[in-house]
Specification:
Elements: H1 3-37, H2 41-69, H3 71-90, H4 95-123, H5 128-158, H6 162-181, H7 197-216, H8 224-247, H9 261-291, H10 296-303, H11 309-312, H12 316-324, H13 326-344, H14 353-379, H15 387-416, H16 422-432, H17 434-474, H18 476-479
Helix pairs in contact: 1-2, 1-4, 1-5, 1-6, 2-3, 2-4, 2-7, 2-15, 3-4, 3-6, 4-5, 4-15, 5-10, 5-14, 7-8, 7-15, 9-10, 9-14, 9-15, 9-16, 9-17, 12-13, 13-14, 13-17, 15-16, 15-17
Domain Major facilitator superfamily (MFS) profile: 8-455
Protein name: MFS transporter
Subcellular location: Cell membrane
Length: 487
């Protein structure tokens, strides 16, 4: 790739780094925010949940908006909104202001991230160049989360408001560069098309209700009727969305894309992998801080080894994909994750860092192998006019995956906490650690199906090639350019 192509990739990767770092820094800073503003426990939880609701609720709409309204336009617009509301969050003096700022920031990320992903898939030709760009993009996002833990710890020491102001500075730099580098040819591919407003409203409504239901899972059996009602409402609105899209001549989402097996398996794989990864990281963070008494900064430094994928994703993973194919590399990543989480199940009260290190390292390696190739598989073979939709589906899967993983381990931990004291807490942690293990086992089974399908496709292509070659050798007319030589 040339200098300008690398510069464009750097800007687009900067946005996913920003998104990952923003989430991680907020997770580290929330105790300080709660203490300084005197927030109630419920309000503090909503500061985190509001972002998830905004992000997961509007990602599908954001991806399709990039296709229909212009990728460059959506990227620059929502990057600006992200900047503005990050700044407003830093100026907040009350809990409701923080919740609103975080919700709108999540909505901005829901439009910005799929636009960035579709800009990559449409700016770099399909094949090795696009694969490398997507692997760098995925690795940068993971690096943002890993480094965000450390950066968040440092910034919180200076004052929690810097957790909001630091992203403003980075966003401003990215916005200036993006105006110059993002190609202006990015016009909507289908001028004159009407925007499916009923589909947009029902899609956003279904996603918001589904995200709220997932967040409600953290409460376990507490107020369970509300969780059930929100889940049923999500299904009802989703059914209305499907009915509208089937009858709409110009739908927001072409439902046929959900019949594309490789895309669906990649999205499910991403949901399960991210759910396991973030669920595991959440439990380990609680174990180190609440049970072992480690500080937030010590915990962040301990977990930074999980960010090794930031180095391996753009260097090792492309070589593995070129040699073995996406499906087999994804399967390898899931199997490494199974081994990593299984090793941590017997965690003890006095485990040294050396005993934790193999799991932390293996989980980072698994991320390097699985996440980038899943990103490639989720967009591979999709028409250019639907790359934004494909990116939106993938981002929706990852957001719901992370929310489901954290909510599930929280709910299981709460249900397993039947006593008091360190031993009872440790026992509950061990039970909660089963959740990420189950998720990656399911993901491994799905990726095994993809690996078998890929192997069959290669075999069929080889057979077709062999038949074609034998037919050519048996036909003297073809060997002589179409004119048979006389006997």
């Amino acid at each position: 790739m040339g200098t300008r192509a690398w510069a464009l990739l750097l800007v687009l990767c900067g946005t996913i780094f920003l998104e990952g770092a923003d989430v991680a820094m907020m997770a580290v800073a929330i105790p300080a925010i709660r203490s300084d503003l005197g927030l109630a426990t419920g309000t503090a939880a909503w500061v985190l949940s509001a972002y998830v609701l905004g992000y997961a609720g509007f990602t599908l709409l954001g991806g399709r908006a990039a296709d229909l309204l212009g990728r460059r336009r959506m990227f620059l617009l929502w990057l600006t909104v992200f900047l503005a509301f990050s700044g407003l969050g830093g100026l907040a003096t009350d809990g409701w202001m923080l919740v609103v700022a975080r919700f709108v920031t999540g909505v901005a990320a829901a439009f910005m991230t799929p636009a960035a992903l579709s800009l990559i898939t449409t700016s770099y030709e399909e094949g090795p160049k696009r694969n490398k760009a997507l692997l760098v993009f995925a690795g940068t996002g993971a690096a943002g989360f890993s480094l965000g833990l450390v950066i968040g710890g440092l910034l919180t020491e200076l004052g929690w408001r810097w957790v909001f102001f630091a992203p403003v500075l980075l966003t401003a730099a990215l916005l200036v560069a993006a105006v110059r580098l993002v190609p202006r040819q990015d016009a909507p591919p289908a001028r004159g098309r009407t925007f499916d407003l009923p589909g947009a409203i029902t899609a956003a409504g279904a996603m918001l209700l589904a995200a709220y239901t997932v967040v409600r899972l953290e409460h376990g059996l507490h107020d369970w009727p509300l969780t059930v009602v929100s889940g049923l409402a999500a299904l009802l609105v989703a059914g209305a969305f499907v009915a509208l899209e089937r009858r709409c001549p110009d739908p927001l989402v072409r439902l046929g894309i959900l019949r594309h097996g490789p895309v669906v398996r990649a999205d499910l794989g991403a949901l399960l992998f991210l759910g396991a990864f973030f669920g595991f990281q959440f439990v380990v963070t609680l174990y180190l801080q609440e049970l072992r008494g480690w500080s937030s900064f010590q915990t962040a430094v301990a977990l930074i080894v999980m960010g090794i994928d930031a180095v391996l994703a753009p260097t090792l993973t492309p070589r593995l994909v070129a040699r073995f194919g996406n499906a087999r590399v994804i399967l390898g990543g899931f199997l490494l994750a199974v081994a990593a989480y299984a090793l941590f199940l017997p965690v003890g009260m006095d485990w040294s860092y050396a005993m934790m290190f193999p799991t932390l390292l293996l989980s980072g390696l698994a991320f390097a192998l699985a996440y980038g190739p899943l990103t490639i598989a989720a967009t591979d073979g999709v028409d250019e006019s639907e790359q934004g939709l494909a990116g939106g589906l993938l981002t929706t899967a990852t957001q719901f995956g992370s929310a489901i993983g954290i909510s599930a381990v929280t709910a299981v931990y709460g249900l397993a906490s039947t006593g008091s004291g360190p031993e009872a807490t440790l026992s509950a942690f061990r039970v909660a650690l089963i959740v990420p293990l189950v998720l990656v086992v399911l993901g491994a089974l799905i990726s095994l199906v993809s690996a078998r399908e890929a192997r069959r496709a290669v075999r069929r292509a080889s057979q077709v090639s062999s038949v074609s070659a034998s037919h050519t050798s048996a036909n003297p007319a073809q060997r002589s350019g179409g004119i048979a030589s006389p006997k």
